[in-house]
Amino acid sequence: MDPLNLKDKVISITIKDDGINHDLIDPKFTEIHGRMFITGTVPKGHAESCWTDNCDGGVAWDRVTDYVIFDSVESYQYAIKKSHENDKDK
């Protein structure tokens, strides 16, 4: 099941009760023990600590409250850069 065409894209996900975005490259829907997850690779530089860069990751789809899809890693990186610049201006 992959209702969204997410090949070669980046998804940024917000989940219930968590203020941190969860970002995945080349995401896909994966069923694990009867539960639907969106899985992919954590993009490099998604967080300052970088400890999960390029790791496999996943989010339970039933926990998702909203998401943004970027057409490419480059467009995602541009958005992150702009976000950091806007944060500095505050």
Produce the secondary structure layout.
Blueprint: E1 10-15, E2 22-32, E3 35-41, E4 56-60, E5 64-70, H1 73-89
Antiparallel strand pairs: 1-2, 1-5, 2-3, 3-4
Q: Looking across the biggest beta sheet, what order are the strands in?
A: 4-3-2-1-5
Please estimate the helix content.
10-25%
Task: Note the total helix count.
Answer: 1
What's the overall average pLDDT, rounded? 87
Question: What is the rounded distance between the termini?
Answer: 42 Å
Q: How are helices and strands ordered from N to C?
A: EEEEEH
Describe what this molecule looks like in 3D.
- With 90 residues, the chain is of the alpha+beta class.
- It has one domain.
- Helix content is 19%, strand content 40%.
- It is built from 1 helix and 5 strands.
- A 5-stranded antiparallel sheet has the order 4-3-2-1-5.
- The longest helix is centred in the last third of the chain and has 17 residues, at 73-89.
- The N and C termini lie far apart (42 Å).
- The model has no long low-confidence stretch (mean pLDDT 87).
Question: How would you briefly describe this protein structure?
Answer:
With 90 residues, the protein is of the alpha+beta class. The protein is 19% helix and 40% strand. The protein has a 5-stranded antiparallel beta sheet.
